[in-house]
Every structure is written in structure tokens, then in C-alpha cells.
Amino acid sequence: MPILALGLNHHTAPVRIRERAAIGEGQLGHALKALRTVRPVKEAAIISTCNRTEFYCGMHEQDIEPVVHWMHRYFDLQDNGFEPYLFHHADREAVRHLMRVCSGLDSLVLGEPQILGQIKRAYRDANEHGMLGSELSPLFETAFSVAKKVRTDTAIGNSPVSVAFAAVSLSRQIFEDLSQQSALLIGAGETIQLAARHLKSAGIGTIRIANRTIENAAALATEVGGQAIGIKDIPDSLPDADIIISSTGSTLPILGKGAVQKALRKRRYRSQLIVDIAVPRDVEAEVADLDGVFLYTVDDLQSVIDDNRQSRVEAATEAEDIVVEQVDVFMRKVQALDANDTIRAYRNNVQQIKDIALAKSLKQLQSGQNPEDVLNQLAYTLSNKIMHTPTAKLREAAAAGNTHVIDTARILLDLPQEKS
């Protein structure tokens, strides 16, 4: 069965396009079921993060057009606007792509470990919705093993580099002494957790964690010595915040231009850094027009991240070698399974021929016919039936000049090569 990887990511599409294809956790089950209705799709898994929305499908046939059309319908994009930004990989390249993504080799931050946890959640979600089978389950499980091997056998994860780390690095560039600054973190997911820990390590003065679920904010605030507040309390906390880092799953902006402008007036226009890591974006783009505000999105962090990439480049080369090797191993297993299916089908076919011929011979013996004649007839029938289709196909190949089919048949049938 063909395997397809299709979607958008930070290599192929800017954030304004990626946010239109974002799928929240609450929507994932619906999206999986909808994707399953597409004619060639047999199995499916969806990975949706701030940097990518990718669809992995086990297909009845390798036809990407129905999946592309489904994408535009599902996201209500009538003008086929995703097409210039889409990537797609089939079979071997799809396997390689997933292994690279799991290993952090395709991430905005080279070697970042968070993506593996996100893909494992996507795998569990697809499995819980009955969307995985004999093609995608082994693929994802193998990709997880490869990611572990990359992490164990190379130094790709040794440097503390991530989108969250890049955000904190940016804070250090703008504010000389973080101990004198106050941070407001919006959200309580993995990225915000990392940002909170990095800020604490950097000696930030105070931290507030704002989240819809106050218990999640409180747990993180306790860990980093901060204060938990609700989303509704954000406007009151904005004037005190020198650094704002936001990463939520909201489909609508959390911070609008009006709220930030009001906070700036209360701050007497002291500089304010806002890092919006979310996709869809948490902060209205117009906020960047305000004097005194430094607004960065995930795409803007690229330059900060590039400064930290070099230490991982050599390790990434080793990791790429591991991926290439493991793609070969996986594809050999897939090909072996394909051979097993063919062998099983061939055995079933011969078994059916044998059963029919044997049943006829038993009836002849029961009717009193000569056993020797019956056995000879059985042997003749079996030989002819088993040889008939291969012989016909070989004649067709010879007539068409397909000598490679004849050469392959000699190998399969263990026949001596013709003497020249």
C-alpha cells in the first residue's frame, strides 16, 4: 500500500498561510474522520504544531489530488491557495521525511526535542480514532526508535536550543539585566513551560503565568516561583510586563492593538518585548505598529535560532546518516512484507488448484476407476494447471520483447541459463 506525506511547514509556507491550516486538539478527531472519507485514504495521522500541519496517509493508490482537494474544502479555502506552499512525499521519501521530523532534523530549531512528543501525541490520537493499520503503525513506531537512536548516538540535543530558548535569548538582547524585568507568559503548554524555565535560569525578576485553566498555570508558576492568573486578568497585568511570550491554542488573537496601546500609556511607553509563538497567532499583527513594542513571531525567531545552529550541524550530519540507514532497513522490511503477501497469494492459488484436482481424483477412485490411471491424470492435471498461467505470461513477455521478465523467471524457477 502506498504511503503519502503531504502538508505545510515552516520551510514551505509563512505563518499567515500555516495558521489557516492549523488544527486544534479539539478539532483533531473530526479532521481525522473527515480525511478518512477521501477515496484513496485507508489510514491517516495528522501532525499540527505551530510550525507544521502534515498529513500522513496509507493509500489504496498513490493519488494525491483527492487529498489536496479535501484540504482546501476542509479549511474552506476555495481558491486552492495552499497549493504553492504544499509539499508531498511518497513511499521512501515519506518514510525519510517522518524520520527526519521525529529526530528534529526538519525543525525550525535543529535537533529540538519537543517535536517528538508532539508526534507521539498525534500517533496516539490517530490510534484512538481507529485511523492506523498495518502501514502507518510500523512506520511511526520505527520513526520513534530512529529518533531515540539519533538522540542517543549523536550530540544533536546537547545544546539547550529551542523556540522558547530563542525567545529568552531575544529578551537578553533587548534587556541587559533580566533580574530587573517582569515577564508575562500566556499559555501553559510545553513551549511556555520551557520559556518559563529558561527565564528562571536567566534570573528573571518576576513571572506571571496566564492560562484559561488556572490549575495548569498554578502548577507551572509553583515550579518557577511565579504567579498564576486567569486569561481575563491579562489586561491588568500588561502594564507591568516587560516581556510577553504567548503560545496558546486559541483560534482568535489573545492580545489586540487596543489593549497593548492602553498598557503602553500606563508604562509611559517603556519598551515592551512581545514574542508570539502561536499558530494561529495570539497577537494582532497591528501591534507591531505601536511605538515601543518589539513584536516577534515564530518566523522572526529564525535569525536568533541561526546563531545557535552551528553547534548542532556536525551532529546533524551524523543523524542524517542514521536516518538514511534506517530508511533502508524499514523499506527492506516493507518489501519483505510485500513478498510475503505475494507468496501467500501464490500458495493459496496453488492450494485451490490442488484441492479441486484432488476432489475430482477421489471421486474417480470411489467410482472404481484404476488407481494408477487416476494418479497419472492427477499429476498431469496439476502440472498443466500450475504451469499454464506462467507459461502464457512468458510467451506474452517474449512477444513484447520483455527479456527481463524471462530472465527473472529463470531465477525464480531456478532454471539453468541458456547457452550462448
Question: How are the SSEs ordered, and which strands pair?
Answer:
Layout: E1 3-9, H1 15-18, H2 25-36, E2 41-48, E3 52-59, H3 65-74, E4 87-90, H4 92-102, H5 114-128, H6 136-153, H7 163-174, E5 182-186, H8 190-201, E6 206-211, H9 214-224, E7 227-230, H10 234-237, E8 243-246, H11 257-266, E9 272-276, E10 293-297, H12 302-306, H13 310-366, H14 371-400, H15 403-412
Parallel strand pairs: 5-6, 5-8, 6-7, 8-9, 9-10
Antiparallel strand pairs: 1-3, 1-4, 2-3
Description:
The protein has 420 residues and is α/β, with parallel strands linked by helices. It has 15 helices and 10 strands. It folds into 3 domains: 3-159, Glutamyl-tRNA reductase, N-terminal domain (Beta Polymerase, domain 2, 2-Layer Sandwich), CATH 3.30.460; 163-306, NAD(P)-binding Rossmann-like Domain (Rossmann fold, 3-Layer(aba) Sandwich), CATH 3.40.50.720; 337-412, no CATH class. The protein has helices spanning 15-18, 25-36, 65-74, 92-102, 114-128, 136-153, 163-174, 190-201, 214-224, 234-237, 257-266, 302-306, 310-366, 371-400, 403-412; strands at residues 3-9, 41-48, 52-59, 87-90, 182-186, 206-211, 227-230, 243-246, 272-276, 293-297. The strands form 2 sheets. A 6-stranded parallel beta sheet has the order 7-6-5-8-9-10, covered by helices on one side. The chain has a 4-stranded antiparallel beta sheet with strand order 2-3-1-4, with helices on both faces. Helix 11 links the parallel strand 8 (243-246) and strand 9. Helix 5 (114-128) runs antiparallel to helix 6, helix 6 packs antiparallel against helix 13 and helix 7 crosses helix 8. It is elongated. 37% of the residues are buried. The mean pLDDT is 90.
